[in-house]
Specification:
- By secondary structure, the protein is of the alpha/beta class.
- It contains 4 helices and 4 strands.
- A 4-stranded parallel β-sheet has the order 2-1-3-4, with helices on both faces.
- α1 (14-22) runs parallel beside α4.
- The chain is globular, with a radius of gyration of 13 Å.
- The chain starts with a strand and ends in a 6-residue tail after the last helix.
Length: 112
Amino acid sequence: MEHFKLLADENITGAVIDQLARQGIEIRRVSQVLPEGAPDPDVLEYAFENGYALLTHVERITRHIARRSDAGNEQNGVFIAGHHLQGERGIGAIVSFVLEYYDLIAGGAASE
């Protein structure tokens, strides 16, 4: 990853995207770059190929992450905000969690 970029799945509320963008994070929605309803493996591949970490509520994505890893394919990271964080009640928690990682990466605490 050249720098911290996020690809937000279709199920992430706009408030999360807006707040992260205001904090300087480059963030795009999956629907801006792939057809609506794109399969999870396609989303993971696009994220990797374009230097994005994925932000999603889709907990079953762990299966696809494991398959990708088992096949020897790299990935840029996935933030899985469980279903209990969907909607307004999870906005602050998701934003805080992602910003914590953003600060660590920006500070040089992580690398590929």
